[in-house]
Design a protein that fits this description.
The protein is an all-beta fold. The chain has strands at 8-11, 18-24, 27-32, 37-41, 46-48, 60-65, 71-75, 79-84, 89-95, 102-105, 111-115, 118-121, 126-128, 140-144, 148-152, 161-164, 169-175, 181-187, 192-194, 208-213, 219-227, 229-237, 243-251, 254-255, 262-264, 270-276, 281-286, 289-294, 304-307, 326-331, 337-341, 346-350, 353-357. Strands 1-33-32-31-30 form a five-stranded mixed β-sheet, with no helix packed on it. A four-stranded antiparallel β-sheet has the order 2-3-4-5, with no helix packed on it. Strand 2 (18-24) and strand 3 (27-32) form a beta hairpin. The relative contact order is 0.12. This is SMP-30/Gluconolactonase/LRE-like region domain-containing protein.
């Protein structure tokens, strides 16, 4: 059943749209569309003061946490800043030549950054750009010696979503609407580009929305698009690198012409997903609510609708349809679900209640 509106609480403090967030010790560090940081206290559901800084000098682009639970921020000017909650202060850690679009840390606590058109090691000052692209029809032209252009299928596609798994593999995905998508993989432990070709995944027919890790180290990729009709797929990649499609849903919505009665809702437009250790289920967003699917004995069960909040939506720029309203999902250790929406703030689902932080 759909979640009733009576169990939805809206907390309005900033009335802004958020681009990304990080949760740590009952606090959410969110970056809004203007490049400012908003700190939420999950205990009081109120905002907290953030460190004084020159808002005119730079914009925040990313927030990360290292293996020692130290909070970092990256800016459009290439600043890597350390934030200390106990003193509510920022300090300068290092300066990059390019904007710090994303930052993460491997199991040795070595930083890895994503800068425009490259994966970058900020300590060794080395970059990686030669990621092989398997998507037909999307080939870049590269200028050689400033004299002529050469077609190449090896380049770095700036990702829309990133995820580092337990083996220090950095998964980076991007979607191009009806033109398919891209999955790039970087070994952040041995610092090398990994093969991103899987026999059962067609780059021209995957529309990646998220990557996450499930039980036994399996990797899951959710894919979905609304282009005239809804479609969605979920892939599982096991420890041997074998990829299989474990769930698929497609087809148009069918309505009885005379009565207007819905005969078939059609396929599910699948968005981002996440794994919940508390109930051994994967959860994934759709345009018809958030579903969960059991992974008992490593076999997916039937999808079950968990909640269906009313969310605002916009148009998908590269397809004939709506854009996914939920951009990111993750679970806290206690089973609380956090999800980032495009227009409705940050959602919290716990004990049958949804709270939106605006």
């Amino acid at each position: 059943m759909a979640q009733p509106d009576s169990l939805i609480v809206n907390v309005r403090k900033t009335n802004t749209k958020y681009k990304s967030f990080l949760c740590d010790k009952n606090r959410i560090y969110a970056i809004n569309e203007r490049g400012n940081v908003v700190v939420w206290d999950l205990t009081t559901l109120d905002t907290l003061p953030f460190a004084r800084h020159d808002t005119a000098a730079y914009k925040f682009l990313c927030v990360a946490k290292d293996r020692n639970n130290q909070i970092y921020f990256g800016t459009d000017k290439g600043d890597i800043l350390i934030y200390r909650p106990e003193t509510n202060a920022l300090s300068h850690q290092r300066k990059l030549k390019y904007s710090a679009n994303y930052l993460c840390f491997n199991s040795d606590n070595h930083p890895v950054a994503i800068i425009p058109y490259a994966v970058y090691d900020p300590i060794r000052r080395k970059r990686w750009t030669e990621f092989e692209n398997h998507t037909t029809g999307i080939i870049y032209r590269k200028k050689i010696l400033g004299l002529f252009f050469k077609k190449t299928d090896k380049y770095f596609q700036p990702p829309q979503y990133t995820f580092m798994d337990s083996k220090d593999r950095l998964w980076m995905t991007a979607g191009f609407g009806e033109f398919g998508g891209d999955v790039q993989i970087f070994d952040a432990r041995n610092f090398k580009i990994l093969d991103n070709k899987f026999d059962s995944i067609d780059p021209g027919l995957i529309f990646p929305r998220s990557v996450f890790e499930g039980p036994n180290g399996d990797i899951f990729i959710t894919s979905g698009l609304q282009h005239f009709s809804n479609s969605g797929d979920i892939y599982r990649i096991d420890s041997s690198g074998t990829a299989n499609k474990i769930f698929t849903s497609d087809g148009p919505r069918r309505v009885e012409r005379k009565t207007g009665k819905v005969i078939d809702e059609g396929g599910l437009f699948i968005g981002p997903g996440a794994y919940n250790r508390q109930d051994n289920c994967m959860y994934f967003a759709t345009t018809r609510g958030i579903y969960k699917m059991s992974l008992t004995n490593n076999k997916p069960g039937e999808p079950e609708l968990v909640i269906n909040p009313s969310l605002s939506w916009g148009a998908e720029p590269l397809a004939v349809g709506v854009a996914m309203s939920i951009k990111k999902m993750e679970f806290l250790d206690n089973g609380t679900l956090l999800f980032l929406t495009t227009m409705n703030g940050i959602g919290i689902y716990e004990a049958g209640k949804i709270t939106f932080l605006h």
